[in-house]
Amino acid sequence: MAGWRERWTSWWRRPQVAVPATTGVVWKLRVERDRAAIGRFNERMEKTLLPSVPESALRALQISVDELLTNVLMHAQQASGTIDLQLARSPGAVDAIIEYFAEPFDPTTWQAPPPGDSIDAARIGGHGIPLVRQLMDEFRYGHIDGRNILQLRKKC
User: Fold this and answer.
1) Which of 4, 6, 53, 61 has its CA 20 to 30 A from that of 84?
2) Please, are residues 62 and 154 in contact by the beta-carbon 8 Å criterion?
């Protein structure tokens, strides 16, 4: 019985980790693999979040989500099905989760090719993921059961 008592005592004295409470999921949405659908989603995000999220944080989130959804459309040719999105507002932050079926691709570790020596040698593309890294306070990736999962957090 001594082992049980020691385990219980250590559990009881363990410091509790505070989990930030959300004020509720703003919404869960599925976006079709279509550029126009991304634009409509961006407009809905603005109408829904602008009353409770500072404009600078909202714009950073809009740009980041748009970049990542566009990358899925343009570069994940093997991807299938819709793209699931979830937005949540918590005290001091707004969170977005993007999920889609595709081969694993971790944008949090992707590195852009080096820029050209001149404006003429510069490439179009390759700037979206670095922009997301710069705009978001947290940018995480996971791959579970065939789904790429991107988590974004913008403090506000």
Assistant:
1) 53
2) no
148 vs 32: which has the higher pLDDT:
148
**pLDDT tens digits along 96-118:** 999 999 989 999 998 876 766 66
Q: Are strands 25-31 and 80-90 parallel, antiparallel or unpaired?
A: antiparallel
Q: How many domains does the chain have?
A: 1
Q: Is residue 15 part of a domain?
A: no
What is the domain-level CATH number for residue 127?
3.30.565.10
Report the chain's terminal Cα–Cα distance, integer Å: 50
Q: Is 96 a member of any domain? A: yes
140 bridge partner residues: 151
